[in-house]
Amino acid sequence: MSGALRSTVLVLGMLTAGCQAQNTQRGIVSLDVNVADFEMMMDTITNGLLLDVRTDNEFAQGHLYGARQIDFYRDDFSDELEKLDKEQPVFVYCKSGNRSGKAAKQMKVMGFTAVYNLEGGIGAWSKRGKPIAK
Q1: pTM of the prediction?
Q2: Which residues are tagged catalytic?
Q3: Is the dihedral of CA 118, 124, 126, 39 positive or negative?
Q4: Distance between CA atoms of residues 40 and 38, nearest Å
Q5: Is residue 134 part of a domain?
Q6: CATH number for position 106
Q7: Domain residues for 18?
Q8: What is the mean pLDDT of the segment spanning 102-131?
Q9: Measuring CA to CA, which of 10, 16, 80, 96 is 20 to 30 A from 37?
């Protein structure tokens, strides 16, 4: 199976089959995704939003290319999430996966249709030698 076909099959399988933390009753998908799959899904799902939920200082020290930042600790975090398109797939990450996991759960409750949390956060991303924007 070619790499592109494998990627497509993997994404479709994750979106339709018994995925971790999937709520099929409402058509909502919320997944914890490892670095390799997170990267592959970002490359495959071209209309996705990459969301960094770390603080301004953490974001300034380095982030994933193309990421939009909304600080999880801000008082208006929920208000800022409400401004996002709930139909757009969201790839969310933080330093270790803790805040982004909480944000993903919150987004699921808010009705976002597809939220993917990077397991291990940007720490796991950088340990795999993946690029970081400064």
Answers
A1: 0.82
A2: 94
A3: negative
A4: 6
A5: no
A6: 3.40.250.10
A7: 3-127
A8: 97
A9: 80
